[in-house]
């Protein structure tokens, strides 16, 4: 079984019904995200999403991926205009009450989905000479949890974006196919991952400063003068392979 992968979004624009204790919002899109093997695009057609957990009423709504803070349940998911949407029911715990109040004021609207990829197909082969990455589409992926109150972005089309640790062992159990649907051997790390990281080279000095200053996901980030742009830089850093992150921090 593959490990959970995460994608976080901002500006989810949740629609909240306090009377029903429900909300609807977008939680995923087809926005391409860099992975060690190339760019990953989530399929946004109904046949691309494994509904097992939501149909079994077993898809939790968490507070910022904290499994100890379940604040509700996902009642339904659907796809429209290249995005996936969720209808959630809030519980009566204090965290859920606080989040509903914030959403009503358009605060803390970042959301994220934890998912597993089951089948991936290359839809575009990149030009190695031009340092272009391959593009892969997740033909089948399964949401395993949806989180609200997520502070860091990556996919600006629905929110702060999709965050991912950069640990490509998360894809070890995935079935990869080429453009013709034939099995494909994919390199999950190493030189290809470094090529993805190379695009952020011009921002490594900013990243290093932020990391050393330990301005990561701190609730006092506003008081510390951390801007949204700075947080986006941190998110880029966190999505790099671990070996690259270590080199950045140790760089003179």
Q: Report the sheet with the most strands, covering strand number, pairing sense and barrel closure.
A: 11 strands, mixed
Mean of pLDDT:
75
In helices, the fraction of residues equals 10-25%
Distance between the amino and carboxyl termini: 40 Å
Could you name the ranges where pLDDT drops below 50 across 5 or more consecutive residues? 153-167, 189-202, 212-224
- Tally the beta strands: 11
> How many discrete domains?
2
Order of helices and strands: EEEEEHEEEHEEEHHHH
Rg over CA atoms, rounded to whole Å, is 18 Å
Shape: globular
- In terms of quaternary structure, the protein is single chain
Summed up, the helix count is 6
Percentage of residues in DSSP E strands: 25-35%
Please tell me about this protein's structure.
By secondary structure, this protein is α+β, with helices and mostly antiparallel strands. It folds into two domains: 183 residues, no CATH class; 54 residues, no CATH class. Strands 1, 2, 3, 4, 5, 6, 7, 8, 9, 10 and 11 form an eleven-stranded mixed sheet that branches. The protein is globular and about 55 Å long.
Task: List key phrases describing it.
2 domains; alpha+beta
How would you briefly describe this protein structure?
The protein is of the alpha+beta class. It contains 6 helices and 11 strands. The chain has helices at residues 52-55, 94-104, 191-198, 204-212, 228-238, 242-250, and strands at residues 5-9, 15-17, 22-29, 33-35, 38-42, 60-63, 66-80, 83-90, 111-124, 135-148, 175-177.
């Amino acid at each position: 079984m593959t490990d959970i992968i995460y994608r976080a979004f901002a500006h989810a624009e949740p629609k909240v019904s306090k009377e029903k204790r429900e909300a609807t919002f977008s939680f995923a899109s087809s926005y391409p995200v860099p992975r060690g093997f190339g760019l990953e695009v989530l399929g946004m057609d109904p046949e691309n999403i494994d509904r097992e957990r939501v149909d079994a009423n077993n898809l939790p709504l968490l507070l910022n991926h904290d499994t100890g803070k379940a604040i509700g349940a996902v009642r339904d998911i659907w796809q429209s205009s290249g995005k996936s949407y969720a209808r959630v029911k809030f519980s009566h715990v204090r965290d859920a009450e606080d989040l509903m109040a914030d959403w009503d004021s358009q605060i803390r609207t970042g959301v994220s989905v934890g998912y597993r990829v089951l089948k991936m197909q290359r839809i575009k082969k990149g030009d190695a000479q031009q340092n272009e990455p391959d593009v892969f589409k997740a033909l089948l992926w399964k949401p395993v949890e949806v989180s609200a109150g997520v502070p860091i972005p990556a996919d600006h089309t629905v929110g702060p974006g999709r965050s991912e640790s950069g640990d490509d062992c998360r894809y070890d159990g995935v079935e990869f196919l080429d453009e013709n649907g034939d099995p494909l051997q994919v390199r999950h790390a190493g030189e290809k991952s470094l090529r993805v990281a190379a695009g952020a080279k011009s921002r490594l000095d900013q990243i290093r400063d932020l990391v050393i200053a330990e301005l990561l996901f701190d609730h006092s980030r506003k008081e510390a003068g951390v801007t949204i742009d700075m947080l986006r830089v941190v998110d880029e850093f966190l999505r790099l392979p671990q070996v690259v992150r270590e080199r950045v921090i140790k760089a003179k």
